[in-house]
Write a structure and sequence with these properties.
alpha/beta
Length: 132
Amino acid sequence: MVWRMNVLLDTCCFLWLAFDKEKLSQAATAIINDEANDLFLSDVSLWEITLKNTAGKLPLPTHPSEWLTSRRKFFGAKALPIHESAIFLTSDLPPVHSDPFDRLIAAQAIENNLTILSPDQPLSLLGASRIW
């Protein structure tokens, strides 16, 4: 029996996949490499990476629009757009983690029944399913 997972890559997980695969856990590597799984990358991560690049905190080899689009395609991750319902859901999540990007990623995972691939434990405290 093949188990299929719908997995949302956290921003740091996506960046490690692209730049430093050794930082990925064994479980994360196995899930990413399993072709039965569907990988997603949120527009939230694109926004976060673009902001960090613009601020000079995250140099990228090319413009963010080119690099992010090509890497998402290369890794076979589907785009996950931000819907207003996920934005509204962030206000209903417990007040245990204040990072707005993480709150929105957790809300998207909950709303879309996705498991987040992330070392960030507070995502679980927000109610999202998480594996690392």
